Amino acid sequence: MAFVSTGLPGHIRSSLEVNLLAALENPDLLEEKDSSGLPRGQPFRAMHLSWYNRHFTSGHEAPSDVQPWLLERDGMRTNYGQMVPYISKDLKQHQSIYGTIARVYAQLFEWVRTLMETCLQEEFEMLMEVASALPGNCASPVAPFVSLVVNINVCTKAHRDVFDRRLCLVIPIGRFEGGALCLLENGLVLELRPGDVALFRSCEVTHFNLNYKGARASLVFQTDREFAAWVKNNNGWVDNATMNSFA
To answer: Which of 133, 152, 163, 165 could form a disulfide with 223, with the two C-beta atoms 3.0–4.6 Å apart?
Structure first.
């Protein structure tokens, strides 16, 4: 399955690049490149403004009447920091940038949300199960997703994002030629313009970019598939009275 929309309103599309550079506080981050002259898979800058639940500490066999932070497993280190979903290192370090992105892209994020709710209702509801259950009543600015990755000067090699909750959404930004998004198993080559939206099953479909010339970035909306355990029973802590404040 792949879904593409070219309907982003012009007043939002035209400000994508300037808003990104303003939010990242560095107007020189986007560089003019010809990726055909670079090694395939060369590292690029990325900022993972993400929520995770992977490698969580399960409460399935823990007593329900004891504060989890007082529990220890014999002969094993207890990871207290991952009993509940947690934010990425980038998000911890760049709270100011995250706040700015949420403000300058508020119209974009609301348009994406409405697009998915209208055209992809089943996928929207599946993702909102997570977005509506973040600890501490936190609200994701990129709902129905909970994570946003900002890629700079990006041309990805073939890969699958196996930790994604079924799908991701991609929006290219910049001034460039080429850089098409290829979905291998689907046999699709998506020639996306800046501001076009592509949504596909990133955990199942091998995808990559063709070479490009110019300055290219992208926004990638994701949700960690391991949130399934949090949605189901709060990672196994649902019966622990001391954990109710996180539900």
So the answer is: 165
**Which run of H or E residues covers position 152?**
strand 147-152
- What single letter denotes the amino acid at residue 150? V
Token pair listed for 75: 């002969």
Residues 94, 65: Cα–Cα separation, whole Å: 37
Q: What angle do CA 113, 125, 231 make, to 5 degrees?
A: 120
Q: What are the tokens at 168?
A: 């991701």
- Copy the structure tokens of residue 229: 């355990």
* pLDDT surpasses 80 at 243: no
How far is residue 192's CA from residue 170's CA, in Å, rounded to a whole number? 10
Task: Work out the average pLDDT over 55-78.
Answer: 77
Q: Are 178 and 216 in contact (CB under 8 A)?
A: no
Cis preceding linkage at 144, omega within 30: yes
52, 53, 54, 60: CA torsion to nearest 10: 170
Q: How confident is the model at residue 88 (pLDDT cuts 50, 70, 90)?
A: very high
Cα torsion through 173, 50, 166, 209, rounded to 10: 30
